[in-house]
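Record Bacterial spore germination immunoglobulin-like domain-containing protein, 157 aa.
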Amino acid sequence: MPTEATRRAFAACLAAAAVVGFAGGAVIGSQGGDAAPDGSSRTGAPDDASTGGEEPPDSGITLAADPTTLPPRGIVTFSGTIAPAEAGIQVKLQHRVGEGEWTDFPNADTPIAPVSRADGTFGGFVSPEQLGPNSYRVVQVDDESRVSNEVEITVAE
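=>
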């Protein structure tokens, strides 16, 4: 039977894996190529109706997520576009629960910050743990007035 220390160590490993997984996905996603992880090609902006996103503001940044409902520590794939398309634009992922404050995810010291490809796309992965609705968005790092639409992810047991 696992001890409390073993359970805590396992939980810490899962949290670290989630951060590394998203950051790795962001780095891999920011490398060249137009193929999605499933091998299909990416075209245009994400379809907000099928990905849980709200109508995007006029910032030129869109964000989508799949799936939008999952169990704790499930994997969510984020993808987005920046218009006009430009390589090297860095965005940071932000998170909030309910009507709380937006905070850099996972924290202000080490936000997840993917970089756009030449076609303006970016992406990565995250593993949310907070039960209930979780909202995510991205903000352009060097121009925080450019904010994407919000995407709501529901974490349910």
